[in-house]
UniProtKB/TrEMBL annotation, chain A:
Keywords attached to this entry: ATP-binding, Ligase, Nucleotide-binding, Protein biosynthesis
Record text on subunit structure and interactions: Heterotrimer of A, B and C subunits.
InterPro entries linked to this entry: Amidase, Amidase_CS, Amidase_dom, AS_sf, GatA
Organism the protein comes from: Limnothrix redekei LRLZ20PSL1
Pfam short name (any one): Amidase
Enzyme class label: ligase
Keyword ATP-binding attached: yes
Entry EC number(s): 6.3.5.7
Protein's name in the database: Glutamyl-tRNA(Gln) amidotransferase subunit A
UniProtKB/TrEMBL annotation, chain B:
Gene this protein is translated from: gatC
Keywords recorded for this protein, A-Z: ATP-binding, Ligase, Nucleotide-binding, Protein biosynthesis
Tagged with keyword Amino-acid biosynthesis: no
Signal peptide interval: none
Organism: Limnothrix redekei LRLZ20PSL1
Assembly description: Heterotrimer of A, B and C subunits.
Pfam families: GatC (PF02686)
Protein name, UniProt field: Aspartyl/glutamyl-tRNA(Asn/Gln) amidotransferase subunit C
Gene3D superfamilies in the cross-refs: Glu-tRNAGln amidotransferase C subunit, N-terminal domain
Length: 487, 96
């Protein structure tokens, strides 16, 4: 599979049909899925039906948009009407939503072809996709390693060429960290840019939906399709949406005085030496392209992780109270209502979800609220201020996406805090609500991809994408594919 | 700060999750590790710092107070683990 732009041209010129493209994706999924296990549900019939509709439009001489006929995978925490939506939890094993999320509705209206729903850490809580109640997804570059998480299925599906683009969600790094681990591009938009209507809630002050793609341009085209105001989401921003892809001109160079800030605190102790080297080399490339590099300090950056591990579980404990075995989802039998609740939640949730609900319940309980939740919200303000000060001086900020490349499955499952550390670099961005993208910037000695994070100021997705595109065009890391992917 | 087994049981009850004895032990240890880790937040002086409740400030969203009828009643009730015609069915609430 090529790029969105190339497939679009082939469709418009009638060199290939959308059904042919869909069949090719489905065939490749059939070949690779037993090894990669990206999908919880395959929607082959729907994909072919959607592709036929695109072909009918082309045959009738109607114009089609860039996403029409493009095979896409959707993280299984986005509600799809009539299609099982599990959040990789036993709790929602049999849940078939009676409504459509705004993001999938927009994609279907744009003619995108959904091949399936992808695996994730249960309720998006995790950094390796090993917390799925159903299966462990493999990293397409090394099947013994994790794809990252929580959107591991969506990242792996794009890396393995099972689809061209995909949708994930990012609460503390769940798009960017798997994008880095799988060698693809992933973008977490500004909080509120993309509607969360139909996204199963985890931590509502942090959750945001975003795109994965093989290239910056594909990612930009997908963002443009899903972004925009939605009256059904009260946190949705009512702002004009620029044409993100249009600004990625073929001969684009960063404006002469583009200032790139390097976050000092993300380098040093705990950072893998090969990751450090790759990001430093990337900075040199940006400098050669005309950017001015400046080291900036965000002194409270390192408090992002402990802040997150109060705020996210607290919000999760409230959001997940709805899984009570009454209106939908799983129910365990009980003698009375209370027993039914307790047994349903005991059997329906996995360990990490229970752990986070317990932490959140504790942090919000009487006597502890000020010491934990309120304090964390205040530290959140300090972290935001660090970013505000940095963006007064520079246009974008750069850091590694994750401190290491993809680790082996099973390596960190028994030590929650060590697992949490892989989100060290991404979490502060969610706390501040900023847009940030991860893109490939090299490989380590094991051949595993390394990711670089580009952070923008509020609603500066356009600038983040421009810088990423300029770097990508100068380096072409994204062209290298794992063996499992088709040519 | 250290979490006792009793506190773990209390939290589990508040969260309406039944834990096995083994889970109680494991959670007490793991939750203590997490709480020790977040202790570092007390290093920062947060006097006079306003809490951030949402990443990006959005003003209250208003809409006209108009009835918008939801039509897919069956679709919603059809998701229920147990129902009796148009009602969600649950086990008895009172023990008497």
């Amino acid at each position: 599979m090529a790029s969105i732009r190339e497939l679009h041209q082939q469709l418009v010129r009638k060199e290939r049909s959308a059904v042919e493209i869909a069949r090719e994706a489905l065939d490749h999924i059939a070949q690779t899925e037993p090894r990669v296990k990206s999908f919880l549900t395959l929607t082959a019939d729907l994909a072919l039906e959607q592709a036929q509709r695109v072909d009918a439009k082309i045959a009738a001489g109607e114009s089609i948009g860039p996403l029409a006929g493009i095979p896409i995978a959707i993280k299984d925490n986005m509600c799809t009407r009539g299609i099982r939506t599990t959040c990789a939890s036993k709790m929602l094993d049999n849940f078939v939503p009676p409504y459509e999320s705004t993001v999938t509705q927009k994609l279907f209206d744009a003619g995108a072809v959904m091949v399936g729903k992808t695996n994730l850490d249960e309720f998006a809580m995790g950094s390796s996709t090993e917390n799925s109640a159903f299966q462990v997804t493999a990293n397409p570059w090394d099947l013994e390693r994790v794809p990252g998480g929580s959107s591991g299925g969506s990242a792996a599906a794009v890396a393995a060429g099972q689809c061209l683009v995909s949708i994930g969600s990012d609460t503390g790094g769940s798009i960017r960290q798997p994008a880095a681990f799988c060698g693809v591009v992933g973008l977490k938009p500004t909080y509120g840019l993309v509607s969360r209507y139909g996204l199963v809630a985890f931590a509502s002050s942090l959750d945001q939906v975003g795109p994965f793609g093989r290239s910056v341009e594909d990612t930009a085209l997908l963002l443009g399709t899903i972004a925009g105001y939605d009256p059904k989401d009260s946190t949705s921003l009512n702002v004009p949406i620029p044409n993100y892809a249009k600004s990625l001109l073929p001969d684009f160079r960063p404006k002469s005085k583009l200032k790139v800030g390097v976050i000092q605190e993300t380098f040093g102790a705990g950072l893998d030496a090969e990751v450090e080297k790759a990001v430093e080399d990337a900075l040199k490339v940006l400098q050669e392209l005309g950017a001015e590099i400046e080291v900036v300090s965000c002194p409270r950056f390192r408090y992002g992780l402990p802040t997150y591990y109060i705020i996210a579980p607290s919000e999760a404990s409230a959001n997940l109270a709805r899984y009570d075995g009454v209106k939908y989802g799983f129910r365990a039998p009980g003698e009375n209502l209370l027993e039914m609740y307790e047994k349903t939640r005991a059997a329906g949730f996995g360990s990490e979800v229970k752990r986070r609900i317990a932490i959140g319940t504790y942090a919000l309980s009487a006597g502890y609220y000020d010491a934990y939740y309120l304090r964390a919200q205040k530290v959140r303000t300090l972290i935001k201020q660090d970013f505000e000060r940095a963006f007064a001086r520079v246009d974008v900020l750069i850091s590694p996406t994750a401190p290491t490349t993809a680790f082996k499955a099973g390596e960190k499952t028994d030590d929650p805090v060590s697992m949490y550390l892989s989100d060290l670099m991404t979490i502060p961005v969610n706390l501040a609500g900023l847009p940030a993208l991860s893109l490939p910037c090299g490989f380590d000695r094991n051949g595993m991809p390394i990711g670089m994070q580009i952070i923008g100021d509020v609603l500066r997705e356009d600038l983040v994408l421009e810088v990423a595109h300029a770097y990508e065009q100068a380096t072409h890391w994204h062209v290298k594919r794992p063996e499992i992917a088709p040519d | 700060m250290s979490l006792s087994l009793d506190e773990v049981r209390k939290v589990a009850h508040l969260a309406r999750i039944q834990l096995t004895a083994e889970e109680e032990e494991k959670f007490a240890a793991q939750l203590n590790n997490i709480l020790t880790y977040v202790e570092q937040l007390s290093e920062l002086d947060v006097t006079d710092v306003e809490p951030t409740t949402r990443a990006i400030d959005v003003n209250n969203v208003m809409r006209p107070d108009q009835l918008d009828r939801y039509t897919d009643r069956e679709g919603l009730l059809g998701c229920a683990p147990d129902r009796d015609e148009d009602f969600f069915k649950v086990p008895k609430i009172l023990n008497s």
